[in-house]
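Exercise 7b. Backbone tokens:
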């Protein structure tokens, strides 16, 4: 499954990946398409067999704060606000959901199975002096340590810490509160300063905190020898704003069949909402550091097949005001494509074919009443080789052009310009030229 890794009509941001048994589970918020607010009043759980990561399934609604036909509210006695950024951990054979609810004191749910459904166990119990962030436990991440102790990390612009009583899993132990775990003061550079999205992990005896820094398009991480810190900033793992319409990022890491991955989200629909789940493989080095990775179109795929139709919406490079949008559950073009727009995909494997001299590239488009040209560039959109071009006409259709035959693994970029000259050209410089639906290479 390429990025995004879930069905293209599903919006699951703030992903917390957890491996339980022979499945990987993705817990996250649930965005609503066409909505001007973050998140939904319900949570869903997606999961896949660790041996078949290209087949994620949905177990349905796992927790809800509003009555729906298929699921009554789990919190009807005290709140009907939106659910943000859940985490789920296992302890003593049960699965505990920690959910932030907007404007409400957070809650803990419990289930017999990792996919839920979760039933309300309790709201957090604590003394006021043992709860930062006004006691709402924003974006809580939970760690069950090897000795059975349970720690919770949370906060919006505050990096807070507490210890949970493992006997009930919702009571904050008196005197355990600490702040900051990650520097959240103006003394820290913006790329390091804690903002939100706490996600703790213990890896090879070290404690990691994955979080969103003040520079919000990145997932940063810090390391400590103790669950209480201090955590030392080490760098960032992925930045969803590199050559792409950026926004907040929230996610974490998981080891699946011996390979580490970072789960994160990207924005669509020209908003900072409508966020979709993505994944990239990462490497944790011997010293514990994580090398930054680029965003790709691959997801769990090793490479894209250029000879099969590629949906436009798996682009990982969007430059020049173009964006992916949902017209309906079947149609997600790249729109607002203007002069100078760049649309990129990483990576295709063109295989070995040393006899062909050229291929045909076919673009399926929706017309905008303009003539334009799409240059096809490999490897780097600024310095890579231009292997051909396609002329796009006024209306809807499939437009074809000849491109140089290539072999091996390459990123592919489309750089767009219009074919208008003279005194009318400035008008077309800022006009939407066409919309891209999908494309394919043909030998």
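Sequence design result:
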């Amino acid at each position: 499954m390429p990025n995004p890794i879930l069905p293209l009509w599903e919006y699951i941001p703030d992903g917390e990946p957890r491996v339980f048994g022979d499945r990987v589970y993705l817990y996250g918020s649930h965005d609503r398409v066409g909505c001007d607010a973050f998140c939904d009043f319900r949570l869903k759980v997606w999961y896949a067999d660790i041996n078949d990561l290209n087949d994620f399934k949905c177990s349905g609604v796992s927790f809800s704060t509003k009555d729906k036909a298929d699921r009554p509210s789990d919190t009807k006695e005290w709140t009907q606000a939106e659910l943000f950024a859940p985490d789920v951990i296992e302890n003593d054979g049960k699965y505990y959901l920690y959910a932030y609810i907007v404007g409400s004191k957070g809650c803990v749910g419990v289930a017999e199975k990792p996919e839920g459904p979760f039933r309300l166990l309790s709201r957090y119990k604590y003394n006021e002096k043992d709860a930062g962030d006004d006691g709402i436990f924003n974006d809580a991440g939970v760690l069950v340590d090897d000795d059975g102790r349970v720690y919770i990390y949370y906060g919006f612009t505050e990096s807070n810490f507490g210890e949970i009583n493992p006997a009930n899993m919702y009571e904050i132990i008196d005197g355990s509160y600490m702040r900051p775990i990650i520097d959240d003061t103006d003394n820290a550079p913006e790329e390091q300063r804690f903002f939100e999205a706490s996600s703790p992990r213990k890896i090879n005896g070290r404690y990691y905190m994955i979080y969103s820094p003040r520079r919000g398009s990145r997932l940063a991480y810090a390391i400590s020898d103790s669950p209480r810190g201090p955590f030392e900033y080490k760098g960032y793992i992925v930045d969803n704003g590199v050559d792409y319409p950026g926004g907040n990022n929230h996610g974490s890491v998981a080891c699946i069949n011996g390979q580490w991955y970072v789960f994160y989200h990207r924005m669509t629909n020209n908003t900072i909402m409508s966020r979709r789940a993505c994944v990239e493989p990462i490497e944790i080095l011997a010293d514990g550091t994580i090398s930054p990775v680029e965003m790709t179109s691959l997801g769990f795929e090793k490479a894209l097949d250029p000879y099969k139709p590629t949906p436009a919406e798996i682009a990982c490079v969007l430059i020049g005001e173009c964006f992916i949008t949902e017209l309906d559950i079947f149609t997600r073009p790249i729109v607002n494509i203007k002069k100078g727009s760049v649309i990129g995909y990483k990576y295709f494997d063109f295989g070995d074919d040393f006899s062909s001299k050229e291929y045909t590239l076919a673009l399926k488009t929706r017309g905008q009443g303009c003539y334009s040209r799409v240059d096809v560039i490999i490897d780097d959109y600024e310095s890579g080789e231009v292997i051909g071009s396609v002329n796009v006409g006024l209306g809807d259709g499939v437009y074809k052009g000849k491109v140089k035959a290539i072999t091996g693994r390459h990123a592919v970029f489309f750089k767009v310009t219009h074919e208008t000259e003279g005194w009318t050209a400035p008008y077309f410089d800022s006009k939407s030229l066409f919309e891209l639906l999908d494309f394919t290479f043909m030998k």
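Instructor comment: The longest helix spans residues 425-429. The radius of gyration is 23 Å.
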